[in-house]
Amino acid sequence: MYLTIQGIVLRVTDYNDRDALLTLLTRRHGKLTVKARGLRRKNSPLIAPCQLLAYGEFTLFEYKGQYTINEAQSIELFLPLRRDLTRLSLGTYFAQVSEVLSQEDLPNPELQSLLLNCLYALSKLGLPEEKVKAVFELRAACLSGYTPDLFGCHVCGNQNPDRFDLSAGQLECRNCRSGESQGIRLPVTPAILEAMRYICLCDPKKLFSFQVGPDTQKQLAELTEAYLSTQLERGFSTLDFYKSLLI
User: What are residue 122's phi and psi, to 5 degrees?
Assistant: First the structure.
């Protein structure tokens, strides 16, 4: 049986001397693992559409639950991204997070759209990396069931608390914290709170339509990174590599 899909390449893994396995993120089928025969050959027609972070249309042949690429065509290769190692490594981090958050045969069009929009923002819009990173991390957390409670201190209801609990995903005033409470709290300013609320609630087409200053942007990206890693209880090698490039 043949199946035609549109997907983003999240991972490329060598299978043998000639072939490779691809992990794709698709709209209708979620995460798929497919074999790309002959991909490792020098003149393979699959090289462009099957490279990491490529978005393409794939015709797959299914046999006993396993998929093999029959044909593939590129839709978007994000070429400017590939000429900037720092931005490329950030996009690879987005791909690794998407792979962790997606599941086999479970449709996830929102996550695919988020990944495409953030890769486009890095590649074509020239937006600050910290801004795109913060948007991706917090919105991806929301799409995966980790939406934080940002509507006031969970103890007193104050609309402008000054702490964010990474484990509980909720706000708290400095004076409301119990001496017995556990977990890490990070400071939040009204500007950071406003940006977080916007990212969580805005129309997907307007994800980047907010403005913050450089200091707020940096603090926001640090907070969203810490929140996502805390909720997922893991780190990411691609994020470590990206951060090593910034030193």
Answer: -70, -35
**Six-digit token string for 66:** 């396993």
- Chain segment 187-211, per-residue pLDDT in tens: 999 999 999 999 999 999 999 999 9
Which burial class, exposed, middle or buried, applies to 237 when counting CB atoms under 10 A from its CB (0-12, 13-18, 19+)? exposed
For the chain, which domains are there?
2-76 (2.40.50.140), 79-245 (1.20.1440.120)
Residue with tokens 């690794």: 96
Q: Residue type for 233, please?
A: E
pTM: 0.94
